[in-house]
Amino acid sequence: MHERDENILVVEDDVQICRFICYALKQEGYNYQSVDTAQGALESIVLGHIDLVLLDLGLPDFDGMEVIKKVREWSEIPILVISARDQDREKAAALDNGADDFLTKPFSATELMARIRVAIRHLRKNNGNYSSTVLTKDDLKIDLDKHLVYLGESELHMTPMEYNLLALFFKNIGKVLTTRYIIQMIWGAGYGEDTQALRTLMAGLRRKIEANPAKPQYIVTEIGVGYRMKDI
Ligand code: CA
């Protein structure tokens, strides 16, 4: 066990789940505190000293979604949403409202820790100051200065749209990006929600970077929500 500096706020009204999360955090040496209401969450965040929020959406006083909206009016603190299964629409809405990521119940302590590490890493390089403009993931490499992509030793020929899409994933590695967010970033606001265009673009990109596009190694589909470039 090692001590960490991060202070994590657990917002969960289910006693069992709260106990499970807190135990996992303790094992990893994180500092944490827990509250079981939305109001309690807002008060703790306002008081400060919180680096990351684990937020259940179904809270007894008001909806966790409202917590996200309120907090985003004044804070960029990472928010990891914990939601029940089969609430894809809710997950996507939470992300579009400014949550950073989500976990679906039931989840393992390993999954939870992996998500927390991603969120904390993004927090540390929050200003988008990548120390390097060459980013890699396994055999895939992107040079953001030269607009070049390599798979192993060979350079891949990308359309400008495919390149922009891949660059977007590399800059958000480990984070789930909603379909709506990706469409806005690639086609611009006002394009609406033409998910078919994105699916087509994604299929083209996968054919170029994935050995088996049906079993992607780099960019996975988060069903009903969007896509995520794998971090580990
Ligand atoms: Ca709940």
Describe the structure.
It is a single chain. The strands form 3 sheets. This protein has a 5-stranded parallel β-sheet with strand order 2-1-3-4-5, sandwiched between helices. Strands 6-7-8-9 form a 4-stranded antiparallel β-sheet, covered by helices on one side. It has a 3-stranded antiparallel β-sheet with strand order 10-12-11. The longest helix is centred in the middle third of the chain and has 16 residues, at 109-124. It is an alpha/beta fold and 232 residues long. Helix content is 40%, strand content 22%. The relative contact order is 0.10. Helix 2 runs parallel beside helix 3 (64-72) and helix 6 packs across helix 8 (195-209). It has 8 helices and 12 strands. The protein folds into 2 domains: 7-127, Response regulator (Rossmann fold, 3-Layer(aba) Sandwich), CATH 3.40.50.2300; 134-229, Orthogonal Bundle (Arc Repressor Mutant, subunit A). Strand 4 (79-83), helix 4 and strand 5 form a beta-alpha-beta unit. Bound molecules: calcium ion (CA).
